Amino acid sequence: MRILITNDDGISAEGLTILEAIAHEVAGPDGEVWTVAPAFEQSGVAHCISYTRPTMLSQLSERRFAAEGSPADCVLAGLHVVMHGQRPDLVLSGVNRGNNSAENALYSGTLGGAMEAALQGIPAMALSQYYGPANRETGNPFEAAAVHGAALIKKILAAQPQDAQDYRLFYNINFPPVPAAEVKGTRVAPQGWRPGCHFSAEEQLSPTGRRYLWIRGGNQHVEATPGSDAAVNLDGYISVTPMRADLTAGDALDALKAVEWTGK
Predict the structure, then answer these.
(1) Residue 63 is part of a domain; what is its CATH number?
(2) Is the pTM of this model over 0.85?
(3) Does some domain include residue 61?
(4) Domain count, the chain
(5) Which residues fall in the annotated binding site for a divalent metal cation?
(6) Tens digit of each residue's pLDDT (9 = 90 or more) over 64-90
């Protein structure tokens, strides 16, 4: 198996090292793992691409590259430049430092990389490690992902349905904020909602009187929609959420179609 990996925390991130090990286990002894990751941290860039400026690409070692762009840029670079037209069988993005459950999924560069792969017709998964008191200060806060990641990916690959839709499936995987031995299992769960857990902006003044804004996140441990990804994560389970890039609100289509619109 040939696997392309990326992330949004940057080429030097600890989570990328964890993902490289996971990818090698999934690819097998005769497989290939290619890495194209951002040269600098790109957290929160979602699915953006560097459409209006060039992206510098540097080779660091065999099958390992850094791009001065977003995770989606890195996937594009991997597919169309680095791998010389040899399409990967799978794209993995992560392991993110922090969860991408619930509303975080909309901002996540980790998911942006997986989404771009899906738009290119390639199976893709985004992996993220929830942080909390039980794992944040341990020797390896990524332990749950490191121990359970490869087996979980193999199970998803074996179970994924044939997908002929225009917007292909990709998977959002979040590991709970506990050590590996305390993971209770895996739950297939929808994207959830954490009430009040939204981003905000805070103004500060520099010593010279200039105004600056800092973006702040919300409490990641508030009660979430029961049975959703964030809820099962906080209960000690790995969440697997199948996603598509189609943003149509299907539940609102019929109501809008029933409106008597003026004009043609």
Answers:
(1) 3.40.1210.10
(2) yes
(3) yes
(4) 1
(5) 8-9, 43, 96
(6) 999 999 999 999 999 999 998 799 999
